[in-house]
């Protein structure tokens, strides 16, 4: 078992960055963020999606700022969200003309909580440093942090070419993939150094280095973490849709997080046609929660089903309970402090059902094939009731709600005090 990592390594020391009241890095927990896919100039649709992402649990939301109309819309979006009671930091994603948009729209520069700059397309040749510097100077004036976000798809070609030529002159000791990884790391570090030289404090800088292959991401961030103490944003770009995107992102970021690397994450899923954008937030939360780094929603344990569980009742009940818990969490977080620690079990037969249910705070063991049509409910390890008939699901849902009120409600807190 030598070398087997049984527990996560301590978080890598990093400089904490305050992003609109949300701290990234330092001693803060890993932060979940997401990005809209609406036209930012469409205030109504952007507000609706930001609100949905935030209610799902996104603690930072990035929006595209690509032209005058979208820049002009940013203060309106911020104000509309505030009227809805939604306080979520907005991050402006700038490419090509960010320096001009921020200069021409000071209201946008003020409304955003952070600016994202891609050093690979902030400007080309002699314009690059000047336009990069203009954005940094705007950030300094408005006291905003900056994420320097390198992306392998828009990597600084001059830097990459120079490193390739140097590698070839040395007899090509590195592979082309290794040179590309080094170019990504250098692009982030050189840009951060330039930003600091201009006057942006280190505690206003976050770095990211996104690629689309799992092994490349692990290698790039391991090296970036070794050579820098900046706060790091993790994300596998172009991860894909469905299970492919979820598995690839979780594999890459799970390894890095286990090694103590990463201060904020985004799961960049391609939505399926008609799919829900909030799915990426749920996956990010589930990754952090299943690895034991944070607790966002109550855990619902459910068996996978087998030949003993031909009834779909337990599957439907597990799904319904999980959806009900997620739907209630935006309200429950405020009303029932600590409710995210709740553990619920929905089991499908008598083999492991009673035992698993006893391990949960509240659990139900539904009858399997050929078993007596009754469902024992266990609360805090003790059998509390036996449910029968067509209304088992509704009765158990009510028992869960009653348990939440009794354990996490005002009465329970008053008694504890």
UniProtKB/TrEMBL annotation:
Transmembrane regions: none
Reactions catalysed, as given in the entry: (2E)-4-hydroxy-3-methylbut-2-enyl diphosphate + oxidized [flavodoxin] + H2O + 2 H(+) = 2-C-methyl-D-erythritol 2,4-cyclic diphosphate + reduced [flavodoxin]
The record's free-text note on cofactor binding: Binds 1 [4Fe-4S] cluster.
Alphabetically ordered keywords of this record: 4Fe-4S, Iron, Iron-sulfur, Isoprene biosynthesis, Metal-binding, Oxidoreductase
The name this protein goes by in its record: 4-hydroxy-3-methylbut-2-en-1-yl diphosphate synthase (flavodoxin)
InterPro entries, sorted: Dihydropteroate_synth-like_sf, IspG_bac, IspG_bac-typ, IspG_C, IspG_TIM, NO2/SO3_Rdtase_4Fe4S_sf
Record bears the keyword Chaperone: no
């Amino acid at each position: 078992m030598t070398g087997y990592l049984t527990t996560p390594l301590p978080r890598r020391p990093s400089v904490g960055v305050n992003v609109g009241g949300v701290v990234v890095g330092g001693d803060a927990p890993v932060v979940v963020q997401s990005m809209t896919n609406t036209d930012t100039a469409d205030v109504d649709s952007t507000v609706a999606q930001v609100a949905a992402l935030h209610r799902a649990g996104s603690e930072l939301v990035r929006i595209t700022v690509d032209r005058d109309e979208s820049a002009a819309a940013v203060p309106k979006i911020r104000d509309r969200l505030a009227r809805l009671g939604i306080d979520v930091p907005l991050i402006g994603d700038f490419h090509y003309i960010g320096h001009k948009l921020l200069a021409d729209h000071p209201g946008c520069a003020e409304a955003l909580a952070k600016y994202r700059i891609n050093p690979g397309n902030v400007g080309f040749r002699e314009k690059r440093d000047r336009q990069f510097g203009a954005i940094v100077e705007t950030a300094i004036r408005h006291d905003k942090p900056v994420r320097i976000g390198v992306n392998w798809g828009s990597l600084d070609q001059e830097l990459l070419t120079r490193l390739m030529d140097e590698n070839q002159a040395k007899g090509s000791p590195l592979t082309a993939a290794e040179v590309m990884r080094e170019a990504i790391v250098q692009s982030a570090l050189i840009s951060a150094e330039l930003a600091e030289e201009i006057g942006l404090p280190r505690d206003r800088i976050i770095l990211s280095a996104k690629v689309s292959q799992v092994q490349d991401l692990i290698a790039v961030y391991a090296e970036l973490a070794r050579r820098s103490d900046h706060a790091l944003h993790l994300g596998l770009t172009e991860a894909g849709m469905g299970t492919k995107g979820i598995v690839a992102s979780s594999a890459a970021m799970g390894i890095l997080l286990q090694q103590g690397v990463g201060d904020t994450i985004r799961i960049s899923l391609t939505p399926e046609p008609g799919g829900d954008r909030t799915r990426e937030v749920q996956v990010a939360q589930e990754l952090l929660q299943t690895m034991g780094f944070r607790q966002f929603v109550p855990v619902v344990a459910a068996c996978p089903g087998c030949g003993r569980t031909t009834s779909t009742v337990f599957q439907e009940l597990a799904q319904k309970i999980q959806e009900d818990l997620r739907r209630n969490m935006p309200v429950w977080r405020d009303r029932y402090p600590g409710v995210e620690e709740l553990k619920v079990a929905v089991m499908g037969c008598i083999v492991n059902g009673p035992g698993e249910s006893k391990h949960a705070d509240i659990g139900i063991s539904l009858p399997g094939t050929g078993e007596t049509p009754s469902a024992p409910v266990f609360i805090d390890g003790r059998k509390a009731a036996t449910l029968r008939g067509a209304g088992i699901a509704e009765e158990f849902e009510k028992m869960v709600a009653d348990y939440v009120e009794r354990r996490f409600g005002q009465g329970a807190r008053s008694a504890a005090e």
